[in-house]
Design a protein that fits this description.
Chain lengths: ~110, ~120
């Protein structure tokens, strides 16, 4: 069971918008930056969002991130079939009961 | 081009050992923390270990602490993961990933293609 909680799956039609939630606690999301990763089938994960809401060079502005309290959200607008992938949130965790880096269980996006 | 290339995976018996390597290129290796993340095929990501850019501090997931050792050779731009007392549950694809800062805790912005470790008799 993951420290960060994500919905197992979400779906939306092409052109629509979808959001993926990531819920944690004060030891992780509440006091640290959140990052989001996209993993297309058969490939390595790719950084989409860092520091809660920043996009690396080359990531389109259709992807956005936000954080409020102990939860974070990834938003994707103008959905394309090529966006079908698994999405993971990640952050630092200062709790002694977990490793310092934690990921969510992942959310499968179907377009 | 920024690149990470893992090697060293393979089939090993339970209780055995394996050493993974990750060759980095295209960036100032010693400036950034490096991580190992694993993934059982069809399952989610599990962070395994990290080391500061200087190599001065290391960090481990509870599941591997005491069995795995992360290290780096900044003169060779290479990251290592020494895995001992391997168990069936260590079977996974192991990714090397670069952090965005010298300290662990930053986002992982570059990932290798992974190397498969299979622990089975």
């Amino acid at each position: 069971q993951s420290v960060l909680t994500q919905p197992p799956s979400v779906s939306a039609a092409p052109g629509q918008k979808v959001t993926i939630s990531c819920s944690g606690s004060s030891s992780n999301i509440g006091n640290n930056y959140v990052s989001w990763y996209q993993q297309l089938p058969g490939t390595a994960p790719k950084l989409l969002i860092y520091d809660n809401n920043k996009r690396p060079s080359g990531i389109p502005d259709r992807f956005s991130g936000s954080k409020s309290g102990t939860s974070a959200t990834l938003g994707i607008t103008g959905l394309q079939t090529g966006d079908e992938a698994d999405y993971y949130c990640g952050t630092w965790d200062s709790s002694l009961s977990t490793g310092p880096v934690v990921f969510g269980g992942g959310t499968k996006l179907t377009v | 081009e920024v690149q990470l290339l893992e090697s060293g995976g393979g089939l090993v018996q339970p209780g055995g050992s394996l050493r993974l390597s990750c060759a980095a290129s295209g960036f100032t290796f010693s400036t950034y923390a490096m991580n190992w993340v694993r993934q059982i095929p069809g399952k989610g990501l599990e962070w395994v270990s990290a080391v500061r850019g200087t190599g001065a501090s290391t960090y481990y997931a509870d599941s591997v602490n005491g069995r795995f050792t992360i290290s780096r050779d900044n003169s060779k731009n290479t990251l290592y993961l020494e895995m001992n007392y391997l168990r069936a549950e260590d079977t996974a694809l192991y990714y090397c990933a670069k952090g965005r800062g010298e300290l662990p805790g930053h986002a992982l912005d570059i990932w290798g293609q992974g190397t498969m470790v299979t622990v089975s008799s």
